[in-house]
Amino acid sequence: MKRHIPKACERCKQAFLCGYAGCWCSRVPITNRQYADIVEQYDDCLCPSCLAELAGQPCDGLVLNPPSDTR
Questions:
Q1: Which domain holds residue 19?
Q2: pLDDT digits (tens, 9 = 90+) for 34-52
Q3: Model's pTM, two decimal places?
Q4: How many domains does the chain have?
């Protein structure tokens, strides 16, 4: 079973889903230097749009919104 964690991007505050292990972020091509710069500035996950922008890549539809709460 794949689990998703609703999060808010530390950079833009946009809601998105973190896939934890096997997350979408592993598909964003990013250099070690870009990664180092990002972790110096942010303590938590970034949304697909922000991560793609900081990596200099197109987002390509990676933006994921958390499901609505059905409780």
A1: 5-55
A2: 999 999 999 999 998 999 8
A3: 0.73
A4: 1
